[in-house]
Every structure is written in structure tokens, then in C-alpha cells.
């Protein structure tokens, strides 16, 4: 049996396709930690984010994120290069500690 997004909308489970997709992504994000980690690694490689920010995205501790990056052969960018990056790191660490 194959179910598509429109079937869920037609059944009245979701008001529209966008709502169904958002819910599916939310559940995927919660239930599959590997997805969060893979996305965080991708963001770290492609965007100027810190290890702390990547850890926050992945939902793991700072030291665990460093290990994940090292295991994947990704060089660490330690220390903020700008004031904004420093603020971002502080905010990410505050969220992780709360």
C-alpha cells in the first residue's frame, strides 16, 4: 500500500500538503538523531558556523560534535573569527546548558 501526502489531506488528517510535510519533517527530526547529526555536519562544512552551533543543531554535546567531525575527517575551525560568531557560540552554549 502506498500513501502519499494528498491522501492524508483528502482524509482530513491535515489541512494541506504543507502541513503534512511539516509534520513529517518534525517527526523525522525528533525520531532520527542521525538526520540531525548529518544536517549539522553539512551545515558545518557549508556554512560559517561554529562547533558549538553544529552541536546545538545536532542535539549533542560540544565534545561529541568535535568527535563526530573528527571521525568524518573534517578539520575543526576552533575559535570564533568574528564578534558575531563569538556571540553565536555563547548563545548556543547557553541553550545547551539550559
How is this structure best described in words?
The chain has 98 residues and is an all-alpha fold. The chain has two domains: 1-31, no CATH class; 33-97, no CATH class. 69% of the residues lie in helices and 0% in strands. It is built from six helices and no strands. Helix 3 packs antiparallel against helix 4 (51-58) and helix 4 (51-58) packs parallel to helix 6. The longest helix has 15 residues, at 17-31.
Uncertain spans? none
Domains (count): 2
Structural class by secondary-structure content: mainly alpha
The number of E-state strands comes to 0
Largest sheet descriptor: none
Beta content comes to under 5%
Q: What gross morphology would you assign?
A: elongated
Rg, please? 17 Å
Tell me the number of helical segments per DSSP (H or I, 4 or more residues long): 6
Summarize model confidence as the mean pLDDT.
Answer: 92
Features:
98 residues, mainly alpha, 69% helix, elongated
SSE inventory with pairings:
Blueprint: H1 5-10, H2 17-31, H3 33-46, H4 51-58, H5 62-71, H6 83-97
Helix pairs in contact: 3-4, 4-5, 4-6
Question: How would you summarize this macromolecular structure in one to three sentences?
Answer:
By secondary structure, this protein is mostly helical. The protein is built from six helices and no strands.
Amino acid at each position: 500500500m502506498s500513501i502519499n501526502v494528498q491522501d492524508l489531506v483528502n482524509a482530513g488528517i491535515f489541512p494541506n500538503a504543507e502541513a503534512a510535510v511539516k509534520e513529517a519533517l518534525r517527526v523525522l527530526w525528533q525520531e532520527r538523531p542521525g538526520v540531525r547529526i548529518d544536517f549539522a555536519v553539512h551545515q558545518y562544512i557549508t556554512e560559517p558556523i561554529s562547533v558549538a552551533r553544529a552541536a546545538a543543531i545536532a542535539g549533542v554535546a560540544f565534545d561529541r560534535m568535535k568527535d563526530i567531525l573528527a571521525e568524518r575527517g573534517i578539520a575543526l575551525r576552533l575559535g570564533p573569527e568574528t564578534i558575531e560568531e563569538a556571540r553565536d557560540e555563547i548563545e548556543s552554549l547557553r541553550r545547551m546548558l539550559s
